[in-house]
Amino acid sequence: MTTSIPVVVAGASGKTGREVGKAIAHAPDMELVGAIAAHYAGSALKDLWSEPVSVILQRNLSDIDAPYAVLVDFTERHSSYQRVTEAIVRGWDIVVGTTGFSADERGSIDSLVRQYHVGAVMIANFSLGAWVMEQLAQQASRYFKKAEVLEAHTDTKKDKPSGTAARMAQILAESWEINAVDIPVHSIRLPGMVAHQAVVFGTMGQTLTMRHDVHDRTAYAQGVLAAVRKVSGFRGRVVYDLGEIIDPV
Ligand SMILES: NC(=O)c1ccc[n+]([C@@H]2O[C@H](COP(=O)([O-])OP(=O)(O)OC[C@H]3O[C@@H](n4cnc5c(N)ncnc54)[C@H](OP(=O)(O)O)[C@@H]3O)[C@@H](O)[C@H]2O)c1
């Protein structure tokens, strides 16, 4: 008999954590053992999600007494950094979707993951389309020598540019052996947007545009479920690339 993977979702009341959390609650090989939020702490998740789950939202990770769980985090950078480090010290594996960490924060999470020998997945974009676009952009960058990145998100998104756009600029910069800051990234924040990205390559007499649109946040669930299933196999290192997690069909 296989036991299910215990999971705690931080940000379960948020736009993304809600969709990802519901997918976890429905996964036959996972068990939602806890959930974390800020304003909604103390609320019953079943009322918030209209799903038959018996979990009360907590404010802090220390309020959850599970001996082990995978922490799935879609919150905001500052509280996420504290929570993620606390989870690592408890020996939990982590799957982090929250974006906007500083280089120092990423570095110290990386060191703690090695020190405590836990599994970690930190991916700026868990959607399949964004990852495929990275592979295609890498190919195009062998033939085009200039590109600009456009990203558009809903106006409540806190970080700018998006983690996905920053990663795309980094990928192109590495390919062209230049600094990522030399690749222009344009950001739009407007109500009505979800998550959209285009990379426009240009050369003599022509442009090539690649575009990816997330129409709703269920787009992230497949990648997160795969990460939860695989994270314990990555003990001692942080996985930043969705390609290590998703399998081709
Ligand atoms: N990697 C990816 O594929 C991906 C995809 C989409 C989004 N993201 C990232 O995920 C994060 C969340 O995005 P979102 O659009 O879902 O945001 P959101 O709708 O604003 O949700 C934020 C969530 O975090 C909780 N929260 C905020 N501060 C907290 C604190 N101090 N302690 C505990 N919980 C706290 C909120 O709780 P309350 O509702 O109770 O206040 C809410 O549940 C962002 O960093 C975003 O960039 C990543």
From TrEMBL:
Question: In this protein, which residues make up the domain named Dihydrodipicolinate reductase N-terminal?
Answer: 5-126
Question: Gene3D superfamilies per the record?
Answer: Dihydrodipicolinate Reductase, domain 2, NAD(P)-binding Rossmann-like Domain
Q: Which PANTHER family does this one have?
A: 4-HYDROXY-TETRAHYDRODIPICOLINATE REDUCTASE 1, CHLOROPLASTIC-RELATED (PTHR20836:SF0), DIHYDRODIPICOLINATE REDUCTASE (PTHR20836)
Q: Which domain of life is it from?
A: Bacteria
The EC number(s) this enzyme carries: 1.17.1.8
Please state which protein family the record places this protein in: Belongs to the DapB family.
Record's InterPro entries?
A: DapB_C, DapB_N, DapB_N_CS, DHDPR_bac, NAD(P)-bd_dom_sf
Keyword match Cytoplasm: yes
Q: Does the keyword Cytoplasm apply?
A: yes
List, alphabetically, the GO terms of the cellular component aspect: cytosol
Q: What is this protein called?
A: 4-hydroxy-tetrahydrodipicolinate reductase
Q: What is the lineage of its organism?
A: Bacteria, Bacillati, Bacillota, Clostridia, Eubacteriales
Catalysed reactions listed for this entry? (S)-2,3,4,5-tetrahydrodipicolinate + NAD(+) + H2O = (2S,4S)-4-hydroxy-2,3,4,5-tetrahydrodipicolinate + NADH + H(+); (S)-2,3,4,5-tetrahydrodipicolinate + NADP(+) + H2O = (2S,4S)-4-hydroxy-2,3,4,5-tetrahydrodipicolinate + NADPH + H(+)
Domain Dihydrodipicolinate reductase C-terminal: residue ranges: 129-244
Q: Which GO terms describe its molecular function?
A: 4-hydroxy-tetrahydrodipicolinate reductase
Q: In which pathway does it act?
A: Amino-acid biosynthesis; L-lysine biosynthesis via DAP pathway; (S)-tetrahydrodipicolinate from L-aspartate: step 4/4
Q: Keyword annotations for this protein?
A: Amino-acid biosynthesis, Cytoplasm, Diaminopimelate biosynthesis, Lysine biosynthesis, NAD, NADP, Oxidoreductase
Could you tell me the Gene Ontology terms of the biological process aspect for this record? diaminopimelate biosynthetic process; lysine biosynthetic process via diaminopimelate
> What single Pfam family name could you report for this chain, choosing any that match?
DapB_N
